[in-house]
From TrEMBL:
Residues 44-96 form the Recombinase zinc beta ribbon domain. InterPro entries: Zn_ribbon_recom_dom. It comes from the Bacteria. This is Recombinase zinc beta ribbon domain-containing protein.
Length: 142
């Protein structure tokens, strides 16, 4: 065995406990702080706003404004409008509050949920009957 390889093996054996302890600590750290290791959005609407002209994402330009990525990079969009972060967030929150949480919208959502739940239950019952018949056939064959 070459001298260098023998020395590597010797060092691994000497420092085995330290190496394994470090690995365990890293694994524990990663599992305990999984949320901290991910990249979190910096603002409430990060990655959720898009240009109405070219469908490219809106990005922060400077500290407090959003603008079209395509226009910013000069790749074809003519939408030169920008909006402040505060105005954008206010519009979105008001829209959610006034349009999505309106009583008629909530009732529509509950109705659609009930319909879908009923459809899934009917489907499950029909599969249960065919599964039961298949089981009977298999048991008779055995």
């Amino acid at each position: 065995m070459p001298c260098a390889k023998a020395r590597q093996i010797e060092l691994v054996n000497i420092y085995r406990n330290s190496i394994e302890g470090s690995r365990r600590a890293e694994e524990r750290k990663a599992s305990e702080n999984a949320l901290n290791s991910t990249r979190r959005p910096r603002t409430m609407l990060s990655g959720l706003t898009f240009c109405g002209c070219c469908d490219q994402p809106y990005v922060r330009r400077g500290q407090d404004r959003y603008c079209c990525t395509s226009h910013l990079m000069g790749t074809g969009c003519t939408n030169s409008r920008t909006i402040t972060r505060a105005k954008l967030e206010e519009r979105v929150v008001n829209g959610l509050k006034n349009r999505l949480m309106a009583p008629e919208k909530a009732a529509e959502a509950m109705r659609a949920f009930a319909e879908e739940t009923n459809r899934l239950n009917r489907e499950r019952r029909s599969f249960a009957e065919s599964d039961r018949q298949e089981l009977e056939k298999t048991e008779a064959a055995i």
